[in-house]
Each structure stands twice: as structure tokens, then as C-alpha cells.
């Protein structure tokens, strides 16, 4: 069951996404400024973005025209620049007092003169300075837009301090926020993870041990946290079942065996006397199954095989042993089995049955059956 994310997590995630967008935009702008200016110096031209030339007018000689650090955007001029007129602000090639970029200056057109048949534009040289004359082919652009605050922002971004403040510091903060989000998200996933059987989640999300047994809850639909039990695979009988051999041995022919007392190990148990004329004992079939089902060889026995133990020459009692698909059943007649005890033999296969008066030992010898000739 998913846990609803708290409002603080969503707010932190929104701030992180917003900061990521700002870092990307800031980094892209810084890269754009530096790349365009580098290419302009390499090509002996002005920085150009989307077909427009731009410079930041930071020349103190132009304070009469623009405030320091003003962004100036110019449209390129081609040909003789005959469309210019008095009052136009232009960018032109020259190394003079109005220079705003390496090899390029900015000024105001004040008029034109004709000297020896050559047309010159006159531009203002600065405050309290004489006008300058320039050739029309040296004019590269006419200013179409200017902004003081954008120019100051670009100048800051283009500086080393701006790179640190607008790029590296936000990037470090973004990394810290991202790590906090990952830790918080991992914590929320831990709270929303499906609990194991025997556990449930309170409103706070903390796993608490249940007081009741989860396996006793019925029906299953009432307990959504209970894991379904795997279905047991049906036992497949072997195609080549193994034969078996059953041997009964009278109690007086068996060696003396020491049976440990499982209920009280520290208490000495008196030896049980054996009567050679005693009957073969009867015992609880359920306990026998628990003892014999641990033997893998018994699983190969055919389901419909039955063996009747021969009558004992010293007793008129009989016993019936039936082999099921995954069990062996014994039925000893006419005996009180309310106080019987069944123990596995220490050596070999089989079991020993104890009563207050008798002791009987049963041994099983099971071998593989040879494949039948087709």
C-alpha cells in the first residue's frame, strides 16, 4: 500500500526542479556568451546571436549616449549603408575612443561630408570632442535595441564571479537537494513496502509485530497483508517402482537396545523386560507416518501394494502393512495402543515400539526394482 507523500516532500521536489531549470538556463547563457565572443574574436567580427549583433557598452566615453554596461543590439548592414541618416546609432570598424569590442566602436551619426568625391559619415567622437569621419563600408550595423539592466546582467554572467555565483554555487545546492530527495524518497518507499506475514502498518507507517497469529485469519480476503501459501506439488509415483522386502524377527532374537528417554533424559528409566511369547505390538499410525515419511525410498513404492505379515508361530495375532503413495501404514490387532511409544532404530531402517510391558522391533529392507523386460 503506497504512502501518500507529505507536503514538505512535494515542496522540496518543486524547488529542486525549479533550481534545476535555472541552473540549466544560467549555464546555457554563460556558455552562449563565451562561445559567441570567442568565435567573434577568431573571425574578427562582432558577437552574433540569431542574426543580431550585440555588445555591452561599458566605455566611459559613451556615457552621453548610454549608461555603462548597457546591452546594445544591432542589425547588420550590408553594402553602402545608404539607409543611414542623421541620429542613427551605428557600430563601425575603428580603433578609437568609442571602442566597445576589439576593433569595433559605437557612436551617433551626426551627418555626412563629401571630400574629393568620396562620401564620409561623421560620428560624434565623445563628450566635448570633435566629430570623426568614417567610410560607409566600415559601418557594420545599426542599433535597434538597448537595455541597461540586461546589459548589467550579461556583464555579470560573463565575469568569473558570475560564473561561480550563477553556475557552480547553484549546482552544488542542486546536488545537495537531490541527495536529500533521494534519502527522503527511500524512506517513503521503506514505509510503503508490503510487510511480511505477521506484520502490519500503522498510520505512521512503522512495522509492528501482530499479537494474533496471521495464519489463523480467515478468510484470506480479510487480511490483505497475508502472503498466500504455496500450493503443494502433487507427488508423482515412479514409473519403475522399487520392490520391498519385509522381515519380522521375534523379540527374543534381537540384541538388547538402549532406548533414550526423550521426556526426561536426566531420570534413569528402568529396563523393560521382554517376553519371548509376547505378541507383536500395535502403535499409533499417525506417529508412524511422521517417522517413516522422512525416508525418500518409501516414496517409490506403488500405491496399491499391500503386504500381510505372516502369522507368528508363537501368536495367533496378525498385522497388516499397506504402502501408499507417500506413506506406510501398519495395523497391529487387539492391543491397547493408548500408551505406545515409537522410536526410530539406531542402526538400519525401521522403528521400535515400546509399551509398558513389551518391546517390538520392526526392520525394513527396501531396494530398487529392476526394470521390467518389454
From TrEMBL:
Keywords from the named record: Membrane, Transmembrane, Transmembrane helix
Region ranges (Disordered): 219-240
Record field: compositional bias (Basic and acidic residues): 223-232
Ranges that cross the membrane: 161-184
Organism: Candidatus Egerieicola faecale
Name of the molecule in the record: Uncharacterized protein
Amino acid at each position: 500500500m503506497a504512502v501518500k507523500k507529505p507536503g514538505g516532500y512535494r515542496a522540496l521536489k518543486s524547488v529542486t526542479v525549479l533550481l534545476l531549470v535555472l541552473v540549466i538556463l544560467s549555464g546555457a547563457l554563460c556558455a552562449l556568451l563565451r562561445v559567441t565572443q570567442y568565435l567573434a574574436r577568431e573571425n574578427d567580427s562582432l558577437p552574433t546571436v540569431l542574426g543580431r549583433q550585440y555588445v555591452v557598452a561599458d566605455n566611459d566615453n559613451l556615457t552621453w549616449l548610454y549608461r555603462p554596461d548597457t546591452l546594445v543590439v544591432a542589425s547588420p548592414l550590408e553594402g553602402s549603408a545608404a539607409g543611414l541618416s542623421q541620429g542613427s546609432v551605428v557600430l563601425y570598424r575603428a580603433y578609437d575612443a568609442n571602442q566597445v569590442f576589439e576593433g569595433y566602436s559605437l557612436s551617433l551619426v551626426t551627418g555626412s561630408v563629401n571630400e574629393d568625391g568620396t562620401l564620409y559619415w561623421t560620428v560624434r567622437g565623445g563628450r566635448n570632442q570633435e566629430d570623426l569621419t568614417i567610410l560607409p563600408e566600415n559601418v557594420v550595423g545599426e542599433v535597434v535595441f538597448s537595455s541597461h539592466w540586461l546589459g548589467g546582467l550579461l556583464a555579470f554572467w560573463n565575469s568569473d564571479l558570475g560564473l561561480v555565483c550563477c553556475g557552480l554555487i547553484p549546482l552544488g545546492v542542486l546536488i545537495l537537494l537531490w541527495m536529500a530527495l533521494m534519502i527522503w524518497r527511500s524512506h517513503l518507499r521503506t514505509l510503503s513496502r508490503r510487510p511480511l506475514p505477521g506484520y502490519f502498518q500503522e498510520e505512521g507507517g512503522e512495522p509492528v509485530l501482530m499479537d494474533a497469529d496471521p495464519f489463523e485469519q480467515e478468510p484470506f480476503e480479510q487480511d490483505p497483508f497475508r502472503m498466500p501459501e504455496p500450493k503443494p506439488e502433487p507427488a508423482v509415483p515412479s514409473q519403475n517402482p522399487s520392490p520391498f522386502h519385509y522381515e519380522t524377527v521375534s523379540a527374543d532374537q534381537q540384541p538388547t537396545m538402549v532406548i533414550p528417554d526423550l521426556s526426561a533424559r536426566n531420570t534413569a528409566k528402568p529396563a523393560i523386560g521382554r517376553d519371548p511369547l509376547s505378541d507383536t505390538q500395535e502403535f499409533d499410525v499417525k506417529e508412524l507416518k511422521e517417522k517413516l515419511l522422512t525416508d525418500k525410498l518409501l516414496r517409490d513404492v506403488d500405491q496399491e501394494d499391500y503386504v500381510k505379515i505372516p502369522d507368528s508361530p508363537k501368536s495367533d495375532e496378525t498385522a497388516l502393512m499397506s504402502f501408499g503413495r507417500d506413506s506406510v501404514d501398519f495395523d497391529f490387532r487387539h492391543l491397547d495402543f493408548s500408551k505406545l511409544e515409537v522410536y526410530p532404530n539406531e542402526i538400519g531402517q525401521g522403528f521400535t515400539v515400546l509399551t509398558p510391558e513389551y518391546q517390538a522391533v520392526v526392520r525394513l529392507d527396501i531396494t530398487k526394482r529392476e526394470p521390467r523386460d518389454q
